[in-house]
Every structure is written in structure tokens, then in C-alpha cells.
Amino acid sequence: MPTTAVLHSEWIKIRSMRSISGSLIAVFAVTVAITVLVSATVGQAEAEGGESDPVFGAFYALNFGQIAAVAFGVTAVSSEYVNGALRTSLAAVPSRGSFYAAKMALVGGAVLAVGLITGFVTFLGGQAFMGKYAIGLGDPGALRACVGSGIYLALMALFAAGLTTLLRSGVAVLSLLIPFILIVPFVIGSVAKGVVEYLPDRAGQLVLQQYPQGALGPWTGLAVTAAWAAAAVLAGWWALRRRDA
Q1: How many other C-beta atoms can be found within 10 angstroms of the C-beta atom of residue 237?
Q2: What average pLDDT does the structure give for the chain?
Q3: In sequence order, what are the residues at sequence separation of 6 or more whose Cβ sits closer than 8 angstroms to the Cβ of residue 132?
Q4: What is the mean pLDDT of residues 228-244?
Q5: Taking 90 as the threshold, does the pLDDT of residue 143 lie above it?
Q6: DSSP H stretches of helix in the chain
Q7: CA 40, CA 99: separation in Å to the nearest integer?
Q8: Nearest alpha-carbon partner for 79 in 23, 15, 13
């Protein structure tokens, strides 16, 4: 089967299943909605203190948007393990390499596209409520954060998709990743602060900071997240090749 046909079939799956497309829409909707709400209510009061990073603060809601990106990566893959759907998919596309590559390309590409739009809309929408404390795309780190936020979301979705292929369970991956993102960095940070910098979410979010502190820079931090995502995708590919459908 031609590559374009495989990509098209995977795109149809994403569009037609509400649980998958809904997670993708939530990446944009949740991030923008929370940003506007926070900026309109307490944004100027927070900025008045002058102690927070204005660029990083503008992307506060990405903490919630990344959960939706992870959920999208999980559901896009876990749907294949429901009612024998994977057997049907592999019957249509016997080459597991083509099937897996198309799946990962669509997961990463779809979140990247939505993430880039989300990044710019989030930043510009939030700053519209900041009054005299508003910053623009020309300020240091702002444009980098808008672009980097889209890449970061795509990498987190691929990380989740690869783990789901490895474990064959969306519930298991969500049960692991959500606490891993929301709780584990705070627990480890109190014991080994240097280790936290290399966790996928903390490393990747350095690209959202105006002046990142620590051993990693904004793009090297994103490269660490890319390494986590690549390891998960490769592990998923190994599992798909070795196991029966």
C-alpha cells in the first residue's frame, strides 16, 4: 500500500473517532480558555509583583494542554487494541513498519500543527488582557516559546503514543504519565533537584522560559524531551514487531 494511502487511512481514524479528535481539540480549547480566564482575572495582579517570568507565565495553561496532548497520543494508539482493531489494520497494511511510521507521523504532525496554533493564540490572547504589563512577540524568548510550545506538545504526544504501543494499554499509560507529569517532579525535586531538569516535561518546558536557569538551555532541554520521545517510539516499534496482533 502506498505511503499516502496509509497516512490517509490513519487520518480517517483520527477524524472519525470522537475520543481521539476530542483530545486533539482539547489541546487548543483547554489551553486558550484557561489562559484567557487567568489573564483576565489575576494576570495583571501577578505581573505587578514583577517576580515571575512573564513569558513562562503566559504559557501557564500549557500544563493542562499537555495532558490533552498526552491523552491524544494514548487514545490514537490504544484504539487499535480494542476489539481486535489492530488485526484489521495490519490486514489492510501488512507492513508493520509502514503502519507504525504512519501512526506516529500523524500523531506528531497533528499535535504539532494544533500546538503551533495554540502557542500563538495562547500568547496573543493572554497578553490582550495584560494592559501595561503586556509583552509582544518581539520580546526576548516570546517567539521562541510560541514555536517551542508546539514542538513540546508534539513530543509529549509521541512519548505517550510510544509507551502505549509498548504497554498495549491506554489506562496503564495514563495512570503512569499523569502522576509522572503532575506529581513526580515535585517529589524528586526536594531530594535531587538536578535530576528533575532531565525529566521530559521539565526539560521541554525550558523553551517556554524567558531566561532558563540550570544546566540546560531552552533548545537543549527540548532535545532531552525529544530523546525521551524517541526512546518511547523505538520501544513501541520493538514491541509491535515482536508481539502478535
Answers
A1: 18
A2: 89
A3: none
A4: 92
A5: yes
A6: 3-16, 18-38, 44-49, 54-58, 62-78, 85-92, 96-127, 142-167, 170-182, 184-189, 193-196, 200-204, 218-242
A7: 45
A8: 13
